[in-house]
Amino acid sequence: MTSQKLAAEALGTAWLVLGGCGSAVLAAAFPEVGIGLLGVSLAFGLTVLTMAFAIGHISGCHLNPAVTLGLVVAGRFPAGEAPGYIAAQVLGGIAGAAILYAIASGKPDFVLGGFAANGYGANSPGGYGLGSAFVAEVAMTGFFLLVILGVTSRRAPASLAPIAIGLCLTLIHLISIPVTNTSVNPARSTSQAVFVGGWAIGQLWLFWVAPILGAVGAGLLHRWLDRDAPEPADSARVAVEQPRG
Predict the structure, then answer these.
(1) What is the chain written as a DSSP string?
(2) Burial letters 20-29, b for 16+ CB under 10 A, else e
(3) Pick from 226, 216, 27: which is nearest to 116 by CA?
(4) pLDDT tens-digit readout, 192-225
């Protein structure tokens, strides 16, 4: 594992938090812009799509501890590299949230509020309870991993993978923002909870446990679905493969 891979994961996760959560904190609540649910969902999808093209050939563009662990279980990523990736993702996410806070707090009437944190019960945008939040996060992350594993298969066209993954994340947000504000990513959830504190830290456990369960389940399912054509354990090909001269 190289320092370039870890730096790429940190930068990519910072961009995901800055772009996705930033759209919610800075633009969605601004009456003159009002990008709403659709805009925030697109923003999260676009962050992954753009970074997949930018760093996919360096690190695989996981940007998400659940994705990294799902790839490990599927036999597509070395388990020994997972702790470093996860640490880089969490630190990168917190850095992205810090940049967002520095921008948002420059407004004279700034109020931290929920700061795009994830929650359930009274902290769910739609008032959904713990059970609904748990099922949503497990299911959404599971399907996200199935899409990632499918479109990064060596039998799939590599050039289309970032588009499919970005659109999948957009769809996930369209479904689950009302339920949990959409996590499917423990690093993204941690980055906002660090700044909100209190209830966000208290509920953070769900946004680690549920996405990881969904990802691990999807990794096992993919191994069964794809068992007739096993692939070597390496990083997922998320970006366009580079030409070989």
Answers:
(1) --HHHHHHHHHHHHHHIIIIIHIIIIIIT-TTT--HHHHHHHHHHHHHHHHHHHHHHHH----SHHHHHHHHHTTSS-GGGHHHHHHHHHHHHHHHHHHHHHHHTTSTT---TTTT----GGGSTT---HHHHHHHHHHHHHHHHHHHHHHTSTTS-GGGHHHHHHHHHHHHHHHHHHHHS--S-HHHHHHHHHHH-HHHHHTTTHHHHHHHHHHHHHHHHHHHHTTTS---S-----SPPPP--
(2) bbbbbbbbbe
(3) 27
(4) 999 999 999 999 999 999 999 999 999 999 999 8
143 CB-near residues (< 8 Å, 6+ apart): 168, 172, 218
Over the stretch 130-146, which tens digit does the pLDDT of each residue have? 999 999 999 999 999 99
Handedness of CA 215, 82, 46, 187 (dihedral sign): positive
Sequence-separated (6 or more) residues with CB below 8 Å from residue 129:
120, 121
